[in-house]
Amino acid sequence: MIEAQQLTKRYGEKTAVDGLDFTVRPGTVTGFLGPNGAGKSTTMRMIVGLDAPTSGSVTVNGRRYAQHRAPLQEVGALLEAKSVHPGRSAHNHLKALALTHGIPGRRVDEVIELAGLGSVARKRAGAFSLGMGQRLGIAAALLGDPQTVMLDEPVNGLDPEGVLWIRNLLTQLASEGRTVFVSSHLMSEMALVADHLIVVGRGRLLADTTVRDLIRETGGDTVKVATADPARLRDVLAGPDVVVTGRVGSEELQVTGLTAREIGLKAAEHGIALFELSARTVSLEDAFMELTRDAVEYHGTTGVESLGRPA
Ligand SMILES: Nc1ncnc2c1ncn2[C@@H]1O[C@H](COP(=O)(O)OP(=O)(O)OP(=O)(O)O)[C@@H](O)[C@H]1O
Q1: For the chain, what is the radius of gyration of the CA atoms?
Q2: Domain of residue 35, residue span
Q3: Which atom of ligand 1 has the smallest separation from the CA of 45?
Q4: pLDDT at 189 over 80
Q5: What separation in Å is there between the alpha carbon of 257 and the centre of ligand 1?
Q6: Ligand 1 within 6 A of 10 CB?
Q7: Dihedral, 25, 27, 31, 37 alpha carbons, nearest 10
């Protein structure tokens, strides 16, 4: 379990992390999302003691990282900054790490297998592709068989097979009861792998919710219906959790709380003709954009003005 309380980090004038309160629970994959510069990496660095909070605190299983006697066996982390000696092989890098942390040597071979690095383990890590480097970083994170696993952008640079491997790995780690905290900009991937989400923007907490609820709140379960008799259809669909909206005089209604199928069946039962019946699909990406619209630090421009005018 990771618990942040009023976690704050300032760099001079800049507040990178601003009073964050959240809990990452074991047994599920928790996604950590936010636009560029939102404070995700800074938060993750504070979790593993690479940066000290300006105020507030963050603990892993009730203790600050530095207070754990064997931190590598407590929290395994893949952070953006790599610290692999380029001349060393993957095997030697992991062996050195194991030796200095009292981890048995056989675990090195286990994580090499787990990370799919068997065929390249004796090669210089400096010659590794981005994807292999990511796999080595993940192997190092898992070396201490930690209860808590934290990965910053783990799918970066991975090919589709690697992305699938990460997806299965994260699900597996969570199913073993571990705490899995993972940041990514790939929303489609997060939607598949994460159950819970912590969303930040400009250092502040924007949402602490499930993928389903976030999508629902953005209107993900709305069904659009068009009929010649909207007033009667409203009456037919009425129910405790059903909300029907629509402009007066319009044939179109927006319905939440019923599926397209349920609406179609009810309309047929009452002999009401429908002209259109379509579920609005909202992706996690849409929901994320909506939620973080005001918290994006670096907006891109696509307007012609930004390209300058020809002389
Ligand atoms: N060492 C530092 N000194 C000064 N400012 C910093 C430092 N580290 C981070 N920042 C600033 O703090 C803010 C948060 O940065 P951080 O890297 O944590 O964001 P992030 O959410 O991980 O972004 P990204 O998605 O781009 O990786 C940014 O505005 C960044 O410029």
Answers
A1: 24
A2: 2-211
A3: 18
A4: yes
A5: 40
A6: no
A7: 50
